[in-house]
Sequence to fold (214 residues):
Amino acid sequence: MDLYLIRHGDPNYQNDCLTEKGKLQAQKLAEYIKRFPCDEVYSSPMGRAKETAGYSCATLGKDFEILPWLHELEWGDKSGDAYSTSSPWTISDRIIEEDKAYPLNESWKTDSRYANDRIVSDVEKRNTELDNFLESKGYKREGLLYKPVLPNDKSIMMFCHGGIISATVSHLLNISFCHLISNLPVHLTSITKISLPSETGPAKLQFILPPEIY
Fold:
């Protein structure tokens, strides 16, 4: 089974929609994406993702289903409002700059610079939702591997956001979230393909397509 993780086009964050530039990006993406197989389409409930999905679904002849857990990640001090403090990208860069090293595996979650940030619990929650979703599609996580209980060759497209894509790739590939967001930026309308194994084994990163190729 293949997952295509697709980030929305250029956003107007205040109104949660696409800018004119974002609409043009989404239109180009919609034409390009026709070359890939597609059995199911899902979207974040946020406007900018749904709008991007709408263009592609129109060319694919598909409808999309909303998955609430594809909503963009939340960060910020636990005692304050969401997005009230530095983003996880900023914190991760600071950790690397100050420590001259990357946090290993899941150790970023207990780092003092993340200690009171809601991003830790939110990433854990999304990872659980991801595994529940994959199990419903026939793939059960066992430790660091995925067991194909009901293997299939479906191609599933998910329109969402940079943060949740990073969290998803991090979990599937067992790479530190902190490490990944510092070194693997998710570009607007980029496509990241992850393949689940036909026999028990790790998920595989197949490719990342930046928007410049459309």
Notes: The mean pLDDT is 94. The longest strand covers residues 2-7. The first helix runs from residue 20 to 32. The chain has six helices and ten strands.
